[in-house]
Write a structure and sequence with these properties.
- By secondary structure, the chain is α/β, with parallel strands linked by helices.
- Strands 1, 2, 3, 4, 5, 6, 7, 8, 9 and 10 form a ten-stranded mixed beta sheet that branches.
- Helix 2 runs antiparallel to helix 4.
- The protein starts with a helix and ends with a helix.
- About 6% of the residues have low confidence.
Length: 380
C-alpha cells in the first residue's frame, strides 16, 4: 500500500463530457475503497474534468477525503446550480438574440453569446473552492505539504485557436508544441470556467485579454500535460461508451439533422474521442522505446496508460431521466431534437438532473469494482 500511495509520478487525467463527469467520481471512489491511502500527485483535466481535477487539487485533506467530498457534491447537484433554466432567463437571452438579428448587431451589447447563463456555476465553484482574490489557495498548500506535485487545466483561445494548458506546481517548465502551449500560473475560477465553457451552450471566459472556451476543442494529445508534469503512469477515466455500432440510428436521421444531433456529434468528436487515440499512440511509442537502449531514447521515457470507458452507454440512459427536467427547459430541449435517439448525446451532457447524476456515480463504482484486478495490476 505504501509503495502505491507514495509514487510521485502517478497521474490522473479526467476528460470532459458535462454531466457525464459524475461517472469519473464514482469510479475513483470505488478505487479508494480498496486503496484508501492512494494519492495522485499529478492531476489534469479539461471541461467538466477540469472541475473535478481542480476540486481534488484544492481540497484540504487526503485524496480519499477529497474524492468523498466531491462525490457528495455531485450527489446533491441540480441543474439550477450549473446554469439558469427558468423561463425568464431563457426568454431574455432569446430576446437578445432576436434583437441582435433584427438590428444587424449594430446596437452595442446585443451580441448573442450563449444558450444559457452560467452565473450559478461560478457561484457554486466559489462556494466550494473558496478562492482568495479568485485564486484557489488549497493548490499551493497541497504542493507545499507534498500531497500534490502539479495540476494542469486546459482551455482553448478563440484568438489564436491554440490549446492553452494552465499549470501550477513544483519546478514547472513551460512547453510549446504545434497548436498547444503551457503557461505556469496560479489557477483561478476563471481558468475552470473557461475550460468548461462548451461552445454555443456556455459563454466564453476572458483570460489575459483573450476569450477562452472548452479545452477539448483542439485537445489532440490529452495525456501530454500529465507527461510534461513528470508522470510515467497515467490513469484516465473516459465518459465515452464503446459498444456495438450505431444500429437503430439510421432510421432516425432521414430528415435534416436537429440541433441536438449536430451538437451531439460535435461534442463527441471534439471532447470525448481523443483519449483512446492518444493512448494508442503512447502504446506504440512505448513499444518503440522498449527496443532502444536508454541512452538512445533522447530523454523519452516509457509511460504506462490505464484508460477505461463505461460499461453502459451513458447518453442512451439519459432519456429515462429526461421527464424530471424543469418543464420549460425540457420543452426547449425537445424542440431542438433531444427526444429523438440521434439527439441524446447532447442531452446526456447537459443532464445535471439529480437522479441521472446518481445513476452515473453508481455505474462508475460498479465498473471500478468489475475492473479491480486490472486496476491492481496498474497500481502495483
Amino acid at each position: 500500500m505504501s509503495d502505491i500511495s507514495s509514487k510521485e509520478n502517478l497521474a490522473l487525467t479526467l476528460s470532459g463530457g458535462g454531466a457525464l463527469a459524475a461517472y469519473q467520481v464514482g469510479f475513483l471512489k470505488q478505487i479508494l475503497q480498496y486503496h484508501p491511502e492512494l494519492n495522485f500527485p499529478i492531476l489534469t483535466g479539461i471541461s467538466a474534468g477540469a472541475i473535478n481535477a481542480a476540486y481534488l487539487a484544492n481540497f484540504y485533506g487526503s485524496f480519499k477525503e477529497a474524492v468523498d467530498s466531491l462525490y457528495t457534491l455531485w450527489e446533491n447537484i441540480a441543474i439550477n446550480r450549473i446554469f439558469r433554466v427558468d423561463a425568464a432567463a431563457i426568454s431574455l437571452d432569446l430576446f437578445k438574440r432576436i434583437f441582435h438579428t433584427l438590428s444587424f448587431g449594430l446596437i452595442a451589447g446585443s451580441r448573442f453569446r450563449s444558450l444559457v447563463r452560467t452565473d450559478p456555476l461560478r457561484q457554486f465553484l466559489e462556494e466550494n473552492l473558496k478562492p482568495e482574490n479568485g485564486i484557489m489557495p488549497g493548490i499551493a498548500r497541497n504542493i507545499k505539504n507534498g500531497r500534490l506535485h502539479g495540476v494542469a487545466i486546459s482551455s482553448t483561445s478563440y484568438a489564436s485557436g491554440q490549446t492553452i494548458t494552465w499549470t501550477e506546481g513544483c519546478c514547472l517548465v513551460d512547453w510549446e508544441r504545434p497548436n498547444r502551449v503551457s503557461h505556469a500560473t496560479r489557477l483561478t475560477i476563471d481558468h475552470i470556467m473557461a475550460s468548461a465553457a462548451i461552445p454555443v451552450l456556455f459563454p466564453a471566459v476572458r483570460i489575459g485579454g483573450e476569450w477562452h472556451a472548452d479545452g477539448g476543442i483542439h485537445y489532440y494529445c490529452p495525456f501530454s500535460p500529465a507527461i510534461h508534469l513528470g508522470a510515467d503512469r497515467v490513469l484516465s477515466v473516459s465518459t465515452r461508451y464503446e459498444g456495438p455500432g450505431n444500429e437503430g440510428k439510421a432510421a432516425d436521421v432521414q430528415d435534416y439533422p436537429s440541433t441536438a444531433q449536430i451538437m451531439g456529434v460535435l461534442m463527441h468528436a471534439v471532447f470525448l474521442d481523443l483519449l483512446e487515440q492518444d493512448a494508442a499512440r503512447l502504446k506504440l511509442t512505448n513499444r518503440l522505446l522498449e527496443e532502444l537502449p536508454e541512452e538512445a531514447r533522447y530523454g523519452k521515457r516509457l509511460v504506462k496508460i490505464f484508460a477505461r470507458r463505461p460499461s453502459e452507454d451513458l447518453v442512451a440512459m439519459a432519456h429515462h431521466f429526461e421527464p424530471a427536467l424543469p418543464i420549460f427547459f425540457r420543452q426547449m430541449l425537445r424542440s431542438h431534437g433531444t427526444s429523438k435517439l440521434s439527439g441524446r448525446d447532447w442531452l446526456g451532457m447537459i443532464m445535471f438532473q439529480p437522479d441521472y447524476v446518481r445513476f452515473l456515480l453508481k455505474l462508475g463504482e460498479k465498473d471500478a469494482s468489475d475492473k479491480r484486478t486490472e486496476i491492481e495490476d496498474f497500481l502495483s
